[in-house]
Amino acid sequence: MREIYPNIYTFPIVLPKSPLREIHSYVIKGEGRTLVIDTGYNQPESLADMQAGLDELGIQMKDVDLIITHLHADHSGLATLFYDAGARIFAGKVDGDLFNAMASGEYWELLGSFRPLYGISEEEMAIEDNPGFRFKLDRPVPYQVLEIGSHVQVGDFDFEVVDLIGHTPGHIGLYDREKEIMFSADTVLDPITPNITFWGWDYPNILKTYMRTLSTLRQMKLRFLFPGHRQLITDHVKRIDELVDHHFERMQEILDSIADEERVTVRDVSARIKWRIKAANWDELPKPQKWFASGETMAHLDYLVASGHLEMTLEDGVLYFCKLQSHISRE
Predict the structure, then answer these.
(1) Are both 309 and 173 inside the same structural domain?
(2) Rounded to whole angstroms, how far apart are CA atoms 90 and 106?
(3) Where are its TM segments located (predicted)?
(4) Which residue, of 207, 242, 277, is where some domain finishes?
(5) What is the pLDDT of residue 329?
(6) Both 25 and 100 in a single domain?
(7) Do 265 and 215 belong to one domain?
(8) CB-based contacts of 97: which residues, under 8 Å, 6+ apart?
(9) How many distinct structural domains can be found in the chain?
(10) Is the pLDDT confidence value at 227 over 90?
């Protein structure tokens, strides 16, 4: 347990069987109101850590307002338990509907449709291998919508709900302009890089959208970014520049991996580029990580198609890519 700012506390929630290891849950205490931000997986180990943290602060689940920053199971998985205890649940409209669609099963049909597009067999990665499927909410949970631009007040904090679309289609943050602090969840992480994945054709070129979000954040006055994982960020400009560099380097790596006049699938490219995980090659990559890797590859390919570097065709239900330009420059 750490008090990282007056009346703002954080403690780690373990994420079993995840390379992320843990998530930071945050508690903001104010007279008459307590906010909890994000939860951990719907797993006994995550629940035990959450309960221990609340107990240490003398807080009961029933007395808090829970804010879910985005749909991923490591941030939303315990929301049903909070609701059942009597807590109020708050989330952005887009991701709130999506984490409920994950709980009801509707979302997984859409995600499953991406796998054949990528040229990947069900044997290589099935829906059941996805951590979001395994650790999701027990059932859909009623929640109150946090509109972009609305305000959440607790104690002497006045948080504006800001749009941080990119990591997910409806990721939100909480920004106190006067205090120059923001809860940014998985939008900016250090030293790891947030997963930017393909979310379907309703969200075209999501990587470009994420870059715009980073550009907006870069212009803000911020003393602290409170992230969902790893270390607190005190120099957001430096870290954002590093993340932007990473994605352009990644796209160049992808272009370099494709020979002239070659037709490749998402799987082909995913197997050629490097991943920071302990696996000698694509075949040894754990199945859950193949979901993240292939989705991230597709997001970068989508950007390269939109920028005129690649041509994309759909044949027999599989996407194929051909190189049109060999070098990418910042636009």
Answers:
(1) no
(2) 21
(3) none
(4) 242
(5) 86
(6) yes
(7) no
(8) none
(9) 2
(10) yes
pLDDT in tens, 78-107: 999 999 999 999 999 999 999 999 999 999
The pLDDT assigned to 278 comes to 78
pLDDT tens for each residue of 185-202:
999 999 999 999 999 999
Q: How is 193-254 classified by DSSP, letter by letter?
A: --------TTSTTHHHHHHHHHHHHHTS--SEEEESSSS-BS-HHHHHHHHHHHHHHHHHHH
Q: Looking at the structure, do residues 229 and 287 belong to the same domain, yes or no?
A: no
- What residue numbers bound the domain in which 25 lies? 2-242
Q: What is the pLDDT of residue 70?
A: 98
Structure confidence by residue, pLDDT tens digits, 267-296? 999 999 999 887 888 999 999 999 999 999
Mean pLDDT throughout 218-225? Answer: 98
How many C-alpha atoms does 77 have within 13 Å on its Cβ side?
25
Question: Within a domain: residue 165?
Answer: yes
Q: Say which CATH number the domain at 86 has.
A: 3.60.15.10
CA distance 274 to 289: 13
Mean pLDDT of 308-314: 98
Exposure string over 234-264, b if 16+ CB within 10 A, otherwise e: eebeebbeebbeebeebbbebbebbeeeeeb
pLDDT of 147 > 70? The answer is yes
Q: Are residues 259 and 134 in the same domain?
A: no
Whether 72 has a pLDDT exceeding 70, the answer reads: yes
Same domain, 224 and 319: no
Q: Which H/E stretch holds residue 70?
A: none
Q: Which of 223, 242, 261 corresponds to the end of one domain?
A: 242
Sign for the CA dihedral angle at 152, 157, 162, 168 comes to negative
Report if residue 330 sits inside a domain.
Answer: no
Q: Does residue 328 fall inside a structural domain? A: no
Asked whether residue 329 is domain-assigned, the answer is: no
The residue ranges of DSSP E strands in the chain, in sequence order, are 2-5, 8-14, 22-30, 33-37, 65-68, 88-91, 144-145, 151-154, 157-163, 172-176, 181-185, 224-227, 310-315, 318-323
Q: Do the beta carbons of residue 205 and residue 248 sit within 8 Å?
A: no
Check residue 331 and give its pLDDT.
64
